[in-house]
Amino acid sequence: MNIIGYIVYGLSILITLGWCLQIREKAQNEQSTEKAMELQGFLMTVSLILIQLLHISPFHLLWMLPSSFILGLLSMTTPLRMLWFFSSIYFSFWYIGISNVGRKFYVDGEYEKAVTAFKEEISKKPTPEAFFNLALAYGKLGDHDNEIIAYQQSIELKPKPETHFNLGNAYINKGNKQDAIVAYKQAISLRPDYLKAHYSICKTYAEIGDKASALRELEIVRNTDSRSADELASSINLL
Questions:
Q1: How far apart are alpha carbons 166 and 217 in whole angstroms?
Q2: What DSSP state is assigned to residue 58?
Q3: Of 119, 121, 130, 137, whose Cβ has the fewest other Cβ atoms within 10 Å?
């Protein structure tokens, strides 16, 4: 194997590893699996192994990896679905240690059980993600007071634009528009191009009668997405 071959093989390993880690993260966060993606990762891994076992040129990976993606997609509508059995066995090892009972309850719509599970998780290890998930569950139950507290606790551990944005939405649900504006501003300070935050703060400014601030935010939205800006302007009578 020459140096270019080593480079091709090395890049293929990184691509395969990145793909498999992406699947693992999806399963961890959503407590769900995508069988087609699992099959793609499985076939990519098999391709890497075959290169070594059969002592063939790593340049075969230039067609083997794309073929893995194609076969994975085909498996959703063809008998290739049978291969899901093998990819599921393979990915069962990737999923060890990532089960999140609270997220599973949340995805299934059992929000009260999700709250209980997230509280138990927090009692063992308080993390910003756990508080964020707890807030989401409280929001689904309509318990906006506890939702706000959970978002604030998440922010104390790790400020993230998404958390500030959700906190703003929770304040809106409580009818507290001034605090919502503060939360949206904090989200924007962490991510200046956060379109949803600009959209929401524009709408909130218009609702409290601050037309100048609403128009300023509307221009920011328009510079990013003119269609969204037109819809926003129409909905708040700023055309």
A1: 18
A2: G
A3: 119
Q: Which residue has the tokens 């300070």?
A: 189
pLDDT in tens, 122-147: 999 899 989 999 999 999 999 999 99
Domain ranges of the chain: 3-94, 101-235
Question: What are the respective helix, strand and coil percentages of the chain, to the nearest 5?
Answer: 80, 0, 20
Residues written for the chain: 239
Q: How many Å apart are CA 22 and CA 4, to the nearest integer?
A: 27
In this structure, what token pair is assigned to residue 151? 């978002």
Domain 101-235 = CATH 1.25.40.10: yes
Span 59-75, pLDDT tens digits = 999 999 999 999 999 99
The whole-angstrom separation of Cα 176 and Cα 168 is: 9
Q: Helix 3-30 to helix 35-53 angle, to the nearest 10 degrees?
A: 150
Non-local (6+) Cβ contacts of 104 within 8 A are 31
Which structure tokens are listed for 165?
């944005």
3-state SS assignment for residue 78: coil
Which token pair is 97? 């240690």
Report the alpha-carbon distance of residue 221 to residue 232 in Å, rounded.
9
CA distances from 60 to 20, 28, 45, 105, 125 (A): 20, 33, 14, 44, 46
Contact 219, 211 (CB under 8 A): no
